[in-house]
Specification:
Layout lengths: L20 E11 L2 E7 L7 H12 L19 E7 L7 E8 L6 E2 L5 H4 L2 H7 L9 E8 L4 E8 L30 E5 L18 E5 L11 E9 L3 E6 L11 H5 L2 H17 L12 E6 L7 E6 L10 H11 L17 E8 L2 E10 L2 E12 L1 E12 L7
Parallel strand pairs: 2-3, 4-6, 11-12, 13-14
Antiparallel strand pairs: 1-2, 1-17, 3-4, 4-5, 6-7, 7-8, 8-16, 9-10, 10-11, 12-13, 14-15, 15-16
Length: about 400
């Protein structure tokens, strides 16, 4: 049963030229450790420039506090989900993720977001894009950003007293670090994440690269250095390197790393240089590749991480970043080799430690090729926080 009645098959923004503002139906949802408004694609302007202006207005960007919108003054809470029913064979839903920044006027639909992905199926059920008829409902979702497919399973029990009406269950015992309390589990099985943005799983062609970084006119204040990195993309382009190679322990707090100007300058210089080797070109205005420091595990996991997205240290780690780090851990010769503690067998659970806990990723390994990761699965949770309409200037929806 849909709990959302604010959208219909007819455009909601007809005859609005007299109104200073107009409302776009949306659900405000938490997905994993991120949150933001979700929209039906049909309810947003078809013109991409107008769509982006509408999303900026909804979120209140650019403004570091996002005081004039729904944004939470942090990249993790400056995200938008756009969902539609798919017409492609074998695909149920299409998802477009948009990353906004508090203090910028950019709307980036290039990268994936595995956290917001966790809320796609609940949103689709709530808004009537799909129907459910069993206790566990699985739908195939195409993430349009990178043409990534995933099967997502949510709990949809019968409404008490009903013989056929069901609802999305948000209550349960599943817990994920970075989100308080417990919730109903949402299982995400990624089907084809290798080379999501880059040209291949290992975009430089190497499992390990030695990079020399020197100061530039824009980025200075450090001595030249050389560093071993693994450039990898199994859902999210990452540059992974040892914290010890930059004279850090990897156990520093988020606040310490965000205040470490010298470290952040060196990391950005490394990012700008290595992005060309990864085939990503100039990434000054991009949110990727993400930069990930690693160190030996400290709390019984597989390894410790500190992830920059790309200039702010993440309080946790992104879903697809965790998948990608986990993949690097099982590749012989990567920068993780000798640091990560990995179990034997063709199915490996990699526990990625981060500043607020850990993130476990289950990886399937090709028994005939230990360098080939065949499957990546994980558990997330989600919650519907609010439903209603997000107000934007009426001019953005005129003649749509």
């Amino acid at each position: 049963m849909s709990a959302f009645t604010g959208s219909s098959s007819q455009p909601t923004h007809a005859k609005i030229s007299f109104a200073p503002q107009v409302g776009i139906p949306c659900l405000f949802m938490r997905g994993g450790t991120s949150k933001g408004p979700f929209f039906k694609a049909a309810d947003l302007p078809k013109d991409l420039a107008l769509r982006d202006q509408a999303l900026l207005a909804v979120m209140g960007s650019p403004d570091k506090r996002q005081i004039n919108g729904l944004g939470g003054a942090h990249p993790l809470t400056s995200k938008v989900g756009i969902v539609s029913k798919s017409g492609k064979e074998g695909v149920d839903l299409e998802f477009l993720f948009a990353q906004l920044q508090p203090d910028k006027d950019t709307v980036d639909t290039t990268p994936n977001c595995g956290n917001m992905l966790a809320a796609v199926v609940p949103f689709a059920i709530e808004t009537g894009l799909v129907t459910v008829n069993q206790d566990l409902s699985t739908f195939r979702v195409l993430t349009l950003n990178t043409d990534m497919l995933s099967d997502i399973t949510v709990e949809t029990p019968l409404i008490p007293g009903s013989s056929n009406e069901r609802f999305v269950n948000y209550e349960g015992a599943a817990r994920i670090d970075g989100a308080p309390g417990t919730s109903s589990p949402i299982t995400i099985n990624f089907l084809d994440t290798a080379g999501s943005v880059c040209s291949a799983l290992l975009p430089t062609g190497n499992v390990l690269d030695r990079i020399r970084v020197e100061p530039t006119a824009e980025l200075k204040g450090f001595d030249p250095f050389e560093i071993d990195v693994t450039c990898i993309d199994n859902g999210m382009p990452l540059v992974i390197f040892k914290a010890s190679d930059l004279a850090r322990t990897g156990s520093e707090s988020v606040s310490e790393l965000n205040a470490d100007t010298e470290l952040k300058t060196r990391i950005e210089a490394l990012r700008l240089k290595v992005s060309h080797l990864m085939g990503l070109g100039d990434v000054k205005s991009k949110n990727y590749p993400k930069m990930t420091l690693i160190a030996p595990p400290q709390n019984g996991g597989s390894l410790t991480t500190r992830s920059f997205i790309p200039h702010v240290c993440h309080d946790a780690i992104g879903v697809l970043a965790a998948v990608t780090v986990g993949t690097a851990c099982v590749l012989k010769g990567s920068v993780c080799d000798g640091i990560a503690v990995i179990q034997e067998g063709n199915t490996k659970t990699v526990s990625v430690e981060h500043p607020t806990g850990e993130f476990s990723v289950e990886l399937g390994i090709d028994p005939n090729n230990s360098q080939n990761v065949t499957r990546a699965a994980l558990l997330r949770t989600a919650r519907l926080i609010m439903q209603g309409k997000a107000m934007v200037p009426a001019r953005l929806l005129e003649n749509q």
